[in-house]
Structure to design on (177 residues):
């Protein structure tokens, strides 16, 4: 379900600067939760992240939530280890707690179901209220690293290498119908 004042559609390559802006804005939420990401735009992790989002847009896997002609959130998807993977879900801080993130997540799950995967995967912070508990409300389950394929494990290890509080990064999986 999409919040009444927004819609979800595929992003265009021309919208990549706005997608990055959404993610930059969303980092405020982490700062409020005591996690200062502090990566510069030229940091290897940030450069790789933006490259993956661009590839996602090129392949028709980058969904944006739009309200009043402005992008307020996005979901970037990929396929890792033969399974759909939610690479990033970000919502502008001012648009949080209005159903935008849930609508994007459900669109991601619908896309994953269309790919005929057995499950959709993601990686996130386990200790942050708007991360792990949010995904658990949509039937995602924390998976041990031993259950992760090499692609998911690579993303998790890169996050643990570059992001603060590496011990709190987790992989999650949701079975698909």
């Amino acid at each position: 379900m999409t919040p009444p004042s927004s819609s979800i559609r595929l992003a265009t390559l021309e919208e990549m600067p706005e997608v990055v802006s959404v993610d930059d804005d969303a980092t405020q939420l982490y700062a409020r939760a005591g996690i200062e990401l502090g990566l510069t735009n030229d940091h290897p992790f940030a450069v790789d992240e933006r490259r993956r989002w661009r590839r996602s847009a090129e392949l028709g896997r980058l969904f944006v939530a739009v309200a009043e002609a402005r992008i307020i959130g996005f979901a970037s998807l990929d396929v890792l280890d033969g399974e759909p993977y939610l690479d990033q879900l970000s919502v502008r801080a001012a648009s949080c707690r209005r159903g935008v993130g849930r609508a994007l997540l459900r669109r991601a799950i619908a896309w994953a179901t269309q790919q005929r995967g057995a499950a959709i995967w993601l990686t996130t912070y386990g200790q942050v209220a708007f991360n792990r508990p949010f995904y658990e409300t949509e039937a995602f389950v924390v998976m041990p690293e031993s259950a992760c394929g090499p692609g998911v494990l690579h993303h998790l290890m890169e996050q643990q290498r570059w992001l603060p509080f590496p011990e709190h990064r987790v992989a999650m999986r949701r079975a698909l119908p």
